[in-house]
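ARCHIVE CARD
Drawer: 12
Card no.: 0347
Subject: one protein chain, sequence and derived structure
Cross-reference: see card 0346
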Amino acid sequence: MTKQQTDMDMQIHALQQDLQAVREQLLQTEKLRDEYKGKYFQFKGIFQRQTHTFYRYQSLSEPSKDALSGIFKGVSFEEFLACGVQPGNIDALWEFARTEALKDNMADVAILSEIISYFVHLYNGTNDSPVLGIQQVAIGDTFDMDMHIRTQKSKPAGTVSNILLTGLTNAFTGEIIKKAVVEID
């Protein structure tokens, strides 16, 4: 074997070692990428519902947002969460939604209902066991003034034909805290 061949063999061996080191580095980089990608999707899933709720709040009519400025202080996402999860603010938000439902402002009531459900869920998550529940009301239920609030357009008695706003209950006892707003046929 000539010196030139030996030198070339050594160069080939060195390059093969470099190639192997690059392949190992690539595998490690791909592993880290996949790990970070998994974490990204995990966090995206966690925050997607929260940001969706925040964007829904921002899509309320200006009069509604102005009326809710006493509940939601500030304009940031974090301030929205901090204000919305407070029990007194959940109550005030539900009362505002009831008023809007009785005024037939249904575009905002649908959004408000989503926001209320979200904050009830979030608030319950801060306790050892759920405190608030969403009242179970179904179309076709018989109107009961102890369970429902009817709209002015509704008949004084009959069956529930539309649920404008679900009520709130005590999650422990099932007692109705806020009656569902319904239309009666």
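Annotation on reverse: The beta strands are 132-134, 148-150, 160-165, 168-170, 176-178, 180-184. The mean pLDDT is 93.
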